[in-house]
TrEMBL record:
UniProt name for this protein: PLP-dependent aminotransferase family protein
Keyword GTP-binding tagged: no
Native source species: Lentzea indica
Gene Ontology terms for molecular function: transaminase activity
InterPro entries, A to Z: Aminotransferase_I/II_large (IPR004839), HTH_trans_reg/aminotransferase (IPR051446), PyrdxlP-dep_Trfase (IPR015424), PyrdxlP-dep_Trfase_major (IPR015421), PyrdxlP-dep_Trfase_small (IPR015422), Tscrpt_reg_HTH_GntR (IPR000524), WH-like_DNA-bd_sf (IPR036388), WH_DNA-bd_sf (IPR036390)
Pfam families: Aminotran_1_2, GntR
Amino acid sequence: MLPPGGRVSGARLARLLGSWRRGGARQGSADLAAALKLLVADGRLPVGTRLPSERELTDALPVSRTTITAALDQLRAEGVVESRRGAGSWINGPVGAGGGITGVDDTLIDLSRAAPPALPSVRLAMEVALTQMPEHLASHGYDERGLLVLRQRIADRYTARGLPTSPDQIVVTSGAQHAWALVLRLFVGPGDRVLVEQPSYPNALEAVRASFGIPVPVPMLSDGWDVDGYEAALRQAGPRLAYLIPDFQNPTGLRMSSESREALSAVLRKARTPLVVDETLVELALDGVESPLPMAAFGGDSVVTLGSASKSHWGGLRIGWIRASSEIVHRLLSTRAAIDLGTPVFEQLVLAALLESPEIVLQQRRAEALAQRDVAVAALREHCPQWSFEVPAGGLGVWCTLDGPVSTRIAVVAQNHGLRLVPGPRFAVHGGCEQMLRVPYTQSPEVLREAIGRLGVVAASVAGTGFPADADLSVPVA
């Protein structure tokens, strides 16, 4: 059975494509495939749209039949287009559903995830955890709060940062995203509004939608958070909850000042709106400046803090946590059984070992991230001089302002040059950020230089300045 949908004529498709050819004859099929994927990603070729025949396309563009066949073959292989003898071709799925922006291809350099590999200390901590496992094997292994030793060390870390915390205020989860889902389940019902930053972490926005909540964006300023904007949004939207990333905000990399933390906390307390603070990146300060107190030090018991080991240690551990008042912890635990029955014991023991002397491990992570950030900044200035950005004081990515609204096109075309990127609109609630692009610096310096060199080629091609037709874009990834 064929999917429903209208048919686009060859002439109309040619108008939609515009000046799609960028790389000369040798790059024709790749450029055509990238341009068609851009139309799908933009929604101008919806799923189910029937495409013109190859003969009609040959007359309309005009290009050789071989070029069109090769472009369609590529799109079929990626799952974007499907064809059937006697029925023609049609758009089969959105870019990313089969082999588009977020498809899996191990030959690509992945700049879509701001997540570093594990440090050697993780392997050593695993060896320690193995020696501790026997004493836990005699128990049933379920613990909805988390192991006491881990909760104590997480609490100690908060206390060291100026926020006195007890183990009873900590709930260990399977990552910060799981923690966020638990909090949403407790606070948000269908139709409830949740204040979020614009731009913000895409998976956090998706979690709000999955809970049938409505994300309400408050735009970020170029230098931080708009306290007056939040006050207006609280009056107008009447949100049930607010979600912020005050430490090296994802994706902008900004960090909220102590003054803004105090002012924004006061605004939220006045409106009696609970605040969820995502501190996933808080340990990755790279500038050596003294860190402000956690938001919970200003907002008190109305603040729920999410933490994670994914960026500071390793995402494969899948260990996160919630810090909250004893009353909120009790409510969280009463609802958790409907989702899961606890976090794996072994991974908790691994993180507990890592947190026994946390600064030793964190210093190594920060030194690595600092070196990679400097490589990425230098490479962006060399290969993408037309873009602007602020050098982030921490975190794992550079938020670039492009020379035009071409973020989605860059992300699509980049796949033909061995790069996987997340376009700017993914970080927005209702679209936008088309002139923005996040460039993570979590790869090795050698891979970063290669990746950003390719990115410069892509940026030049999208901008129409062209690039050599015989450019070697198949350099093996280190």
